[in-house]
Specification:
87 residues, alpha+beta, Alpha-Beta Plaits, 4 strands, 14% strand, globular, binds FE3-S4 cluster
């Protein structure tokens, strides 16, 4: 069960999560950052680093934001996949 970045990242993009991810599986898109679901090792390090609480383990994503589980997966198969985070 990977971790998932949700709505609060949009417009915030704090990037505090990026520095603590041991496998560099957090990528940046136009509007928010995304966790690659197949690369995430489920360590939990990123979750407390987000000042707006945008990160949840997949099983704990709040009801109204469950669509972000698919969004974090499908963005990597899109025509404009997210890339390495900008510093
Ligand atoms: Fe976004 Fe929070 Fe990371 S705002 S970039 S998920 S620290
Ligand atoms: Fe990375 Fe661990 Fe989060 S692998 S995306 S810091 S759960």
């Amino acid at each position: 069960m990977p971790y998932v970045i949700t709505e609060a990242c949009i417009g915030t993009k704090d990037r505090g999560c990026v520095d603590v991810c041991p496998v560099d599986c957090i990528y940046e898109g136009e509007t928010q950052l995304y966790i690659h679901p197949d690369e995430c090792i489920d360590c939990g390090a990123c979750e407390p680093e987000c000042p707006v609480n945008a990160i949840f383990p997949e099983e704990d994503v709040p009801e109204g934001m469950r669509s972000f589980i698919a969004i974090n997966r499908e963005i990597f198969d899109s025509d404009t996949p997210p890339g390495r985070p900008k510093k």
